[in-house]
Amino acid sequence: MERIPAFILVILYFISTEVACNGYTHINNNVQSERRALIDFKSGLTDPNNRLSSWKGNNYCYWHGIGCENGTGFVVSINLRNPYPIENDIPYPPENEYGNQIYMNLSGVISPSLIKLKYLKYLDLSFNSFKAIPIPQFFGSMKNLIYLNLSHCGFIGEIPSNLGNLSNLQYLDFSSKYTYHNDFGYSSDLFIKNIEWMTSLVSLKHLSANNVNFSMVGSQWIEVLNKLPMLIELHLDDCSLFGSIPSPSFVNFTSLSVIVISSNEFNSTFPEWLLNVSSLVSIDMSLNILHGRIPLGLGELPNLQHLDLYGNYLEGSISQLLRKSWKKIEFLNLCENDLHGSIPSSIGNFCNLQYLDLNNNNLNGSLPKIIYGTETCNSKSPLPNLRALYLFGNQLMGKLSNWLGELKNLEQLDLSHNQLQGSIPNLIGNLSNLHSLNLRNNQLSGTLTEQHFWKLSNLEYLYIDSNSFRLDVSSNWTPPFQLRYLFMGSCHIGPTFPAWLQSQKDLQYLDLSNASISSSIPNWFWNISSNLEYLILSHNQLQGKLPNSNIGEFLPNLYFLSFSGNGITGTIPDSIGHLTSLGVIDFSSNTLTGSIPSTINNCFSLNVLDLGNNNLSGMIPKSLDQLQQLKSLHLNHNKLSGELPSSLRNLTGLDILDLSYNNLSGQIPAWIGTAFPNLVILNLRSNMFSGRLPSLLSNLSSLHVLDLAQNNLMGEIPVTLVELKAMDQDHNMSISSLYDNRSSYRYEERLIVITKGLTLEYTRTLSLVVSIDLSDNNLSGEFPEGITKLFGLMLLNLSMNHIIGRIPESISKLRQLSSLDLSSNKLFSSIPSSMSLLSSLGYLNLSNNNFSDKIPFIGQMSTFTESAFVGNPNLCGAPLVKKCQDEGKDKSVEDKIDSGFVDQWFYLSIGLGFAVGILVPYFV
Predict the structure, then answer these.
(1) Chain segment 378-394, per-residue pLDDT in tens
(2) Residue 869 region by backbone torsions, left for phi larger than 0, else alpha for psi between -120 and 50, else beta
(3) Burial letters for 878-887: b for 16+ Cβ neighbours within 10 Å, e otherwise?
(4) What is the pLDDT of residues 238-285, one digit of tens each?
(5) Kindly report the CA angle at 284 between 282 and 289, in degrees rounded to 5?
(6) For residues 263 and 514, what is the distance between their CA atoms, to the nearest angstrom?
(7) Which of 130, 289, 580, 785 has its CA 20 to 30 A from that of 876?
(8) 129-175 pLDDT, tens digit each
(9) Cα–Cα dist 190/214, whole Å
(10) In this predicted model, what pLDDT tens digit does every residue of 650-694 receive, in sequence order?
(11) Do the bridges between strand 171-173 and strand 147-149 make them parallel or antiparallel, or are there none, so unpaired?
(12) How confident is the model at residue 85 (pLDDT cuts 50, 70, 90)?
């Protein structure tokens, strides 16, 4: 909750309900008029939760939200602010007896009867739901108002300019509830066309207009607001302001304490005129397009406590910036800019600093070995008030400094994604207030002992993955903490399963991947935490079987489950179907046997099912069609048999279908081309599919990878393949990442591609692959010229078929092509000279065909060796040993010409060498 400014408390003091009228006060005609005005006001409101149930009887001064003047009974305040607004920093509303949340919103129509409340000074209707109605014009007639809060009420339209009549107003907040997206970008329900009327608000101290559209105001906003000499706080967050931040002709902000102009589109340097406003306590210009240097003078503002410049393009030396005095600074956020340099030791002089965020800049060098300031701050420990330190996403090197373990009040420490080396100091274990420790993605190493954790009783988030730590604790160790998130991937924890995990009953995320664990999973583990959502034990040497017990009963919230790359045996238990919240199942690269259980269709939320690289057998269950949320299906490298069940066509959201390296048979069904409009990868390689290629495959407009190699397909390649729209782009289109909608933690897609004679696994660069592989089938007919219109194609393999005809000259249009294999076919005629223009081509195999005539050994074609052309008896010329018939005659002519050039260059080089030998010593 925001801290209430002192001047508002003064206002409330004079109009508080403590001076309300009582039952003995004589109710004259004026008072009766006040009551009728309130009743009329109530009659226009919709109050589903009976917030105004007390509004009955004559003593309206005791009604909920009403404050009266002592003795007279005049209404001076109405406070109907929603007590449970839906905001990130506000607790969720309470529940009624049926478990439904009570939102306490008032809505309806605001009656103009409020004008009759002549003495009304305070009106707060914030966080209610007056949707689709404008702010009432009559508010501009309530001239005694000192405080008016209409924020987050759902009003629409233009802010009425007659609010400028409220010359007594000290507090005005008409912030909009939210912005929405339209065809032209982000917009707001409320807007201002002309801001001149604000110059009449001569008493205004607080102005909030967050999320109100100011785009029509232009740059005059600063000159207008500069005319408000009493203004203390200005809040214009996300107001569609743009361009430069103008400098007022004369700086009149003598009382300005808070300025918030974040989340706009200001494209300018930092407004240096603010350095002349010595009263400033808080500046927030985050999430704009500010550029240029951060003025060093900011560090000399005598009252500045809060500075937020996050998410701009500002530059500067961090060592110079932090050497300024920053006398009162408590909150300093400079993250996601272009700052450089190393952090100076003088940072220890920031005695009041509570929050420091420098993440995602270009900081380098090592952390200071020591920091100064214990004497300045009159403290035995450095930075005695620091609670949050964020330095992640830089290029920091060197070792962790011991002073990090002396920050006694530190709650958040994030040094992740740097290049830090060495071990973690034992003193880190002294940080008894530490709530989150993130050191992931560095080059840290060494042994972690119980001493590193011995006082971390408040630790809930621990990220030390992607380093090279070794954990050495006793078998009966009980940690002092209760973790929610534990990421220890790539740490050496094994060989036994860590028994200390039994004590962690609040775990939500657990990642022990690549942790050198080679034992079986103990039975107690499945009952470790009913809160567990993410469980990642991949790339260990785990043994044994998955439990047959109802693990869904113990892990009801599990969403991400990965045991990939282990030695787990046995069958997939039927109880997997009880994990109904699962979004990702990854059991790939184990030695699982048996069939795919039909109960898996109960996992209705499943996005990813990866059972590849096991020994599963039987048929693909027809019931998989119940997985309507499925986007990625990997059943590759198993022993599955039978035909593709037609029920798979119901999985219309599939992005990736990989059934390669199985024993599947029958024809490739035509419905594949119509059922999966979003399919990016179709891999049916190395099965026993037969028949013709369905022409409807051309309907797969999102397809990047088509791999049907090593089957028994026959007939001609459909000319309709030219209609594969995602392949006809001359630039790479990104495959949408399969992110969990509740977290950024990601399942990493992977695909085996045979290219350039090698077997390659693509993971993070998978989006760069655009490929067609129809090799090792019984395809016939002529080379499909339409393929040359797929301008984005990178890999093309039609080898080991019975394709005839010529390579078309238009193949030169495939400028992205990096691998071309047409070997072992029946292609004939000459190799088109246009192939020399394929500048990206790195692998070529035209062997074992019937090509003839001279090889066009120029351009890119001159980079290939003899092996690319062997097995073509009628080919001649380099790089083959076989000479073409007219090559000798041409060679003799070339030799004569070359000889003449040699003679001329021989004598010329002698002359040049003589001249250089004389002149060079004079220039050295």
Answers:
(1) 888 899 999 999 999 99
(2) alpha
(3) bebeeeeeee
(4) 999 999 998 998 899 999 999 999 999 999 999 999 999 999 999 999
(5) 155
(6) 41
(7) 785
(8) 998 899 999 999 999 999 999 999 999 999 999 999 999 999 999 99
(9) 9
(10) 999 999 999 999 999 999 999 999 999 999 999 999 999 999 999
(11) parallel
(12) confident
The partner residues of 189 in beta bridges, in order of sequence, read none
Residue whose pair of structure tokens reads 């078309």 in the numeric block: 808
**What is the spatial distance between Cα 857 and Cα 866, in angstroms, rounded to a whole number?**
11
Contact between residue 442 and residue 414 where contact means Cβ atoms under 8 Å apart: no
Residues in the chain: 924
Beta strands 681-683 and 705-707, pairing class:
parallel
DSSP 659: -
Give the max Cα distance, the chain: 128
The pLDDT value recorded for residue 894 is 41
Given a contact cutoff of 8 angstroms between Cβ atoms, the answer to whether 401 and 375 are in contact is: no
Burial annotation 204-225 (CB, 10 A radius, 16+ → b, else e): bbbbbbbbbbbbebeeebbbbb
| CB contact set of 917 (below 8 Å; sequence gap of 6+) | none
Cis peptide bond upstream of 879, omega within 30: yes
Backbone angles phi, psi at 194, to 5 degrees: -135, 130
One-letter amino acid at 405 equals: G
Residue-wise pLDDT for 164-185, tens only, equals: 999 999 999 999 976 444 443 4
Complete DSSP assignment for 609-625: EE--SS--EEPPPGGGG
Cα 333 to chain center, whole Å? 20
Neighbouring C-beta atoms of residue 143, cutoff 10 Å:
12
**Strands ordered across the beta sheet of 850-854:** 804-805, 826-829, 850-854, 874-876
CA angle 803, 804, 808 (to 5 degrees): 105
Q: Is the pTM of this model over 0.90?
A: no
For the chain, the distance separating the N- and C-terminal CA atoms, rounded to the nearest angstrom, is 74
The rounded distance, in Å, linking the Cα atoms of 211 and 143 is 26
**Quick check: 42 pLDDT over 70?**
yes
DSSP per position, 836-874:
GG-TT--EEE--SSEEEEE---SGGGGG--GGGTTT-TE
Q: What's the CA angle centered on 222, arms 221 and 226, to 5 degrees?
A: 120
How many CB atoms are located within 10 Å of the residue 162 CB?
Answer: 13
Question: Which pLDDT score is estimated for 403?
Answer: 95
pLDDT for residue 19: 39
Residue 764 CB partners (closer than 8 Å, separation 6+): 748
Residue pLDDT, tens place only, 94-137: 544 434 434 688 999 999 999 999 999 999 999 999 988 999 99
- For 23, residues 6+ apart whose C-beta sits below 8 A from its C-beta are 59
- Torsion sign over Cα 505, 507, 508, 511: negative
**E-strand stretches of 632-695:** 632-634, 639-642, 656-658, 663-667, 681-683, 688-692
